[in-house]
Design brief:
- By secondary structure, this protein is of the alpha+beta class.
- The protein has 13 helices and 12 strands.
- It is elongated and about 85 Å long.
Length: 456
Amino acid sequence: MHFKTNLLPLLEIIRAITPATIRAVALLMLLAMGAVHAHDIPADVRLNIFFKPEGKTLKLLIRAPLSAMRDVDIPTFGKGYLQVSKADQALRNATKLWLIDNLEIFENGAPLPAPRIVHARVSLPSDTSFTAYESALANLTASPLADHLELYWNQQMLDVLLEYPIQSDRADFSLRARVDRLGLKVSTALRFLPPGTASRAFEFHGDAGHITLDPRWHQAAWRFTVSGFWHILEGVDHLLFLLCLIIPFRRWRPLVVIVTSFTVAHSITLIASAFGFVPDALWFAPLIELAIALTILYMALENIAGSHIERRWIITFAFGLVHGFGFSFALRESLQFAGDHLVTSLLAFNIGVEVGQLAVLIVLLPLLARLFKHALAEKIGVIILSALVAHTGWHWMLERGEQLIKFPAPALDAAFAASVMRGMIALIVLGVLVWLANGTVRRWLAADQNPAKNSQ
């Protein structure tokens, strides 16, 4: 009886559903589907921005595709043609919703107030005025396009001039552009035009974080220290390589030697890459990614077969050269934010990497000690962990090898031969330095292996 009473409200609802109700619900669903289709998120969005402080005013010229301005009622007529004569308020609403609300501008670290929308107009996608500041400004002040051109609204561009009040045009300016919301893939070309000095160009993807347009050395150093720290923590391949290094050697002297050799090696190739002393061919990056997978696989297999510290630090140095190229790929886009402090930023990035490695060691060493003390015998534990890493490295090697073969082979010309010769000379010089350092390293490690003799 109680069960039947609970069903009565449900039965009443079912009886109330009529064919007319069903048709109304179906119509609403179709309208909703049409609305979603009409406001699809664009796949590729490109923004062009001119950032020009001038006297007490900061002028921001922005060009963005109208297709990225979703949830804005753009006036149209006919077959979806843009009604430019009645679009002014809609364009200003789109500017406020999608540009102003997603841009934070700072002067000497303090956020600027909301800007004034001076101009908002529609431009053709074929318009080339945003190649220079003067022509972009002239286009914004020109007469609007006519309705009779029958322009589809989602194929045109939105050009905007914003003005922010500032204290000085020579202040320290920075910005945070959360423009990744405008599309699935968003790229931004920003030109900073400070008074009295050369312009500075930036090219970044998505949300690049807080960008200082003309950083001081300490600002650049902090940004790249943080970048290096998070790069090592977020790089799974580098973490697995580091794990392979420390699994069989957990005493402090061997760790100092191994980690130092890795640090010195990746610093060399990272700096060399930043100054352009490496190939810029398309095949080079996937080749390095494949080589990184091979270093992980080799280290894991060596742990299983048995490794020796006298040989391990030399192999680590060689593999560190490879990983340094991998670090450089992460820095290619970021180095534009270094301003005039390239060397400082590179050193800061390396410091961040080392701090990240130290943080990993602080976590991993106690965990490994507990694992080998309470769960697994040390020899068995080293084999099992290394086998798991080797399995991952093997699959990465196959996947990255498939990616590499998609790129054309390098042309065997004089330029390629010259680059190979330079690389061989560099390797010979590094090999001599390692040979000279090997004796010192052996004596230092021998002191760790014979503490009683060393203390006499």
